[in-house]
Amino acid sequence: MKQHPIFRYLYIFYSFVFVIHIVNVFIESDNLNYILGILALIMLAVSFAGASRLFKILGSAFILIGSVVFAASGQSIETIPALLTSNMSLLTLLAMLPWMNSVVRSGRFDQSLNNLLKVNVSDLGKLYPRSSITTLTLASFLNLSAATISQDVLKENLRPLDKKLRDSFIATATLRGYSLALLWSPLEILLAVSIFTTGVDYVSLLPWLLMIAAITFILDSIWGRFHYKKYAYENTNKQSINMKEMIKKIVHLLVALVLFLSLVISLGNLFNLDFIFTVTILIFPFAFIWSLIMKRRRSFWTIGWNTWKAKTNTMQNFIVLFISLAFFANSIDGTPFLDFIQQPILAFSDYPIVIFVMIQLIFIFMSMFGIHPIATIGILSGGIATLLEFMNPVSIAIVLVTSSIATLTVGTYGLVVQLTAVNTGQNPYRITINNLLYSLFFGGIGTVVAYFLL
After folding, report:
1. Residue 66 in domain
2. If we measure between CA atoms, which residue out of 381, 392, 413, 358 comes closest to residue 196?
3. DSSP characters over 399-432
4. Is 93 within the bounds of a domain?
5. N or C end of the chain: which has fewer CB within 10 A?
6. What is the percentage of the chain residues whose pLDDT exceeds 90?
7. Residues of the signal sequence (predicted)?
8. In the chain, helix, strand, coil percent, each to 5?
């Protein structure tokens, strides 16, 4: 069924639903929200056939548990559509992200920054922080594409080295740099979900996330410098680069990022819009105006349109997950089932550090079995609601963000680890083992910061 021609045009139906959602954010109509719920139900049914096996299992589990609790609550079946729309903002954000990716590609920032990896250095220890910071910078805009772009360049440059050493270097430098960018990037869905779940302001969270990212990057770079410095390296593909031009490109990207963040914060405060929605409606006009300034309008449209259609047509996994998760979360709200989830958390209410560590370990454990961190947040959502009643929401948000992002480097069945395994031809479990201590350390820094903010 996935191969049926109709699946090439799902982007039209999905976009129609997302536009209705955006309109309803402004007019706040209960009737339109109900229609949106019916459309969400259709989206769920249509997308289920195209979802992967893992997401079908997760979605089915959320729907089954939610249905049992819903039936026990005695609510009318007519109320179901209204329970399905609470995560529509996250899906709309996901649909808009490819446009920011496209404007960076049209400006050829990805090619320019990766030239940094082709400059010769004397050993791998010096190449490690450079590889990490390049991936980090690209990932701020390109997300998953940044990791694969950096890996392709490194794989070519490190070809003369022993395969085991080459694979280890690529899996640590690129995945860790990738994770540190997503920790604070306004375009990262895990950050958006954590903010959505806890209700904190992005502005109050950003300084702490930047601090955690800086500390982790510095310490990991020191580790990489000493761990790999014993391996000599001579790049056979070395080339000269114009450092002045390179610095201009990096400054250009940083200015664009700061401007985008400033606009998100300013417009959100001015019109009293939440963070996720502000980012969603700002992405396209910002990217388009940026392409005009760079005089890359034609390439932006060509890359953007094709990328957006392809990405929107393949949103089935997230549609199944988010809509089923909305039904699950809204069904258990205020029921005895929620009390059952809350009991273990309340038992450790006097020991918040224990709760934080438990949350971190749950994320890592679940990720090793293919459970997406967004689904883990959904599973923990009932307990998180309880924590927010007696703990600083910023602390909870920090733990959620750092714990979920840290899993990206160790999630054996996660997309970025699987892509890295394919790119390098190594076992994904080997990637998990290589990054496990880093993941624990990364999440641990977040836990410590969160604890001191209580």
Report:
1. no
2. 381
3. HHHHHHHHGGGT-TTSHHHHHHHHHHT--HHHHH
4. yes
5. N
6. 40
7. none
8. 80, 0, 20
**In sequence order, what are the residues at sequence separation of 6 or more whose Cβ sits closer than 8 angstroms to the Cβ of residue 163?**
425
106-157 pLDDT tens trace: 887 777 766 777 666 778 888 899 889 888 888 887 777 778 778 888 888 8
Q: Which residues make Cβ contacts (< 8 Å) with residue 335, sequence separation at least 6?
A: 69, 72, 73
User: What letter does residue 6 receive in the DSSP assignment?
Assistant: G
Cα separation, 47 vs 51, whole angstroms: 6
For 365, other C-beta atoms within 10 Å of its C-beta total: 12
| Structural domain span for residue 323 | 88-452
What are the pLDDT digits (tens) for 256-274? 888 998 998 899 888 888 8
For residue 1, what pLDDT is reported?
Answer: 40
Give the end-to-end CA distance of the chain in Å, rounded to a whole number. Answer: 51
Question: Helix, strand or coil for residue 232?
Answer: strand
From 309, 324, 435, select the one nearest 9 (Cα to Cα): 309
In a domain, 284, yes or no: yes
Query: Which of 434, 11, 371 lies closest to 223, judged by CA?
Result: 434
Question: Does any domain span residue 52?
Answer: no
Count of domains in the chain? 1
CA dihedral for 184, 212, 365, 353, sign (positive or negative): negative
Residues 193-246 pLDDT 10s:
999 989 998 999 999 999 999 999 999 999 999 999 888 877 655 556 666 777
Strand partners, 232: 123
Query: Where does residue 436 rank: exposed (0-12), middle (13-18), buried (19+ CB within 10 A)?
Result: middle
